[in-house]
Amino acid sequence: xxxxIEWTSDGTVRLLDQRRLPAEEVYVECREVAAVAHAIxxxxxxxxxxxxxxxAMGLALAAQxxxxxxxxxxxxxxxxxGEALCQxxxxxxxxxxxxKRMQRCAEQQRHLPIxxxxxxxxxxxxxxxxxxxxxxxxIGAHGQALIPDGAAILTHCxxxxxxxxxxxTALGVIRAAHEAGTRLSVWADETxxxxxxxxxxxxxxxxxxxxxTLITDNMAGHLMQRGQxxxxxxxxxxxxxxxxxxxxxxxxxxxxxAQAHGIPFYVAAPLSTLDLSLCDGAAIPIxxxxxxxxxxxxxxxxxxxxxxxHNPVFDVTPHRYITALITDRGVVRAPYEAxxxxxxxxx
Length: 347
Hints:
The protein is α/β, with parallel strands linked by helices. It has helices at residues 33-41, 48-65, 71-86, 93-108, 114-143, 170-179, 196-208, 220-225, 251-260, 292-295, 336-344, and strands at residues 5-7, 13-16, 27-30, 151-155, 184-189, 212-215, 231-234, 238-240, 245-248, 265-268, 274-275, 296-297, 300-301, 314-317, 324-327, 330-332. 41% of the residues lie in helices and 17% in strands.
């Protein structure tokens, strides 16, 4: 298996440049926090859990570079770097979650000498990566029973090993079912405008020997109408406490289509994607990216020069369209708020 992101023995962050896939497998080595921030912002690394891990490792890199004689000085500088990392991608809550966890680690270890505190932060970042992989495998274990033998599954964007530290969320469920011997096939939306489905999901599934067929985003309704899709499974970038889900733009339309055709619509996400501070999805910030991602591709102009373009990266799917949430602690069905709070151990 490829490594999405790792902390190397020489104290750098090594990540697979997802902008170069599927043509090239190129790894980038980040030796300072600014390089990690750049990688997140430019989508060299992407996917909510993956950028959470990247943020934690970026903060560990920052910690190595801080020159301070007191914890207060150290923590002030660490907080500044943490805020800068959080601003790189605003929708996915895993990034802010990981930064907060690293900052809590620093507070809890404030009694240590600075050099030992830095090592504690490096270990914490590595633990976040390890736990993400373990959590993804748990999502797969909980979700595989929801996939019937012979199922044709539609997925959108990329919620696989590339979007996480390894194994994947939505693709983790598909992988687990495939490994258990369930016969299945996957329809992969190309996912305009960044083509995560075409470039990344198809690449991952093909490598694993899982049958995959690529379709354009506007083909899904036709396939549902003809009975060629049995279920939909996607990942998530943020889940509000009532079960509303922010995910890649186009997810909401698929959820509405699935309900209209009586097709189960599942969302797979770790607990780190839950945002209990938000009552519903209306408060989830929606990132907007450069309109040129819509009007150009790979340096080629695909629309008239000067035409205006709109490029929201995510949309929000109301919980009423979701059949179940598949998490690392179990499957949650409506009423979602009670189930989410129970799983998260919150009050």
